[in-house]
């Protein structure tokens, strides 16, 4: 339980509703900043203005998926007011406080490190990334269906990168009856792909493997789908790039050649905000409980 723990949510989107629900269910005292348009009547949940004083007794701060921008601004779907996190806010937190976000920009990292406040980037964690790979793969399939006139079943599909997202997506496509090729960079990934009944190849040789591809999914956060690769892709193919901005595709050249290519960021929050919210809520409440237990035991 989170009895006696104060949790502050600053901004966010539909995913935060699950976090609020879970924290409240576990008996935390929840303070919401930037949720003016949200109706709530539950006891233990209050709304406040974002001032340093309001953060003085907070044990955990929960920020949206992308914590702040480079100026400290925090997005909130539930408020039209500006929400900005500054040095004064972080300095007001108790020293044991933890800040949670999906991924942090240098601005937030620097504020936390200057004040010695713990920062946890949830999307960096293996468990969160693996859970998130499920709605990501479903979102990628949705985009493929929306943007093609063929079935995934029987398609020549290719997944670049065989990490947490790539492996889940490759298996999802295989389960739908696609012929799946996976681009890997290590022998152990190659071996795993063979074991899973897929056709692996090393991405250095990507150009020689793309001539028949229908659906090309990239999960590698580096420029891999280069102009030379795109020049060898059939015109009918589509490229769905899941890697974090700016993706790993030469979008300029794809447009020039008339190959449909799209960057598809933030799929879990788009296709399954409730599930994505639960993934975040379950993980961060476990971490807060474990931290509170350690502090109680003086560890
Ligand atoms: P990950 O587990 O690190 O997977 C990336 C994989 O690419 C790793 O296995 C990495 O190998 C491999 N790789 C790197 N360079 C390569 C190359 N030249 N050739 C072949 N493989 C290469 O990361 P992830 O969690 O799957 O996430 C992948 C990307 O998707 C990230 O940019 C992430 O931010 C993004 N993402 C997007 C969404 C969305 O909604 N669009 C959702 C989740 C994640 P090593 O193991 O050797 O590093």
From TrEMBL:
Originating gene: dpsA
Database matches in InterPro entries: Dipicolinic_acid_synth_A, DpaA_N, KARI_N, NAD(P)-bd_dom_sf
Organism: Paenibacillus ehimensis
Domain KARI N-terminal Rossmann: 154-233
Superkingdom of the organism of origin: Bacteria
Protein name in the entry: Dipicolinate synthase subunit DpsA
SUPFAM superfamilies recorded: NAD(P)-binding Rossmann-fold domains (SSF51735)
Domain Dipicolinate synthase subunit A N-terminal: start-end pairs: 6-123
Name of one Pfam family that matches: KARI_N
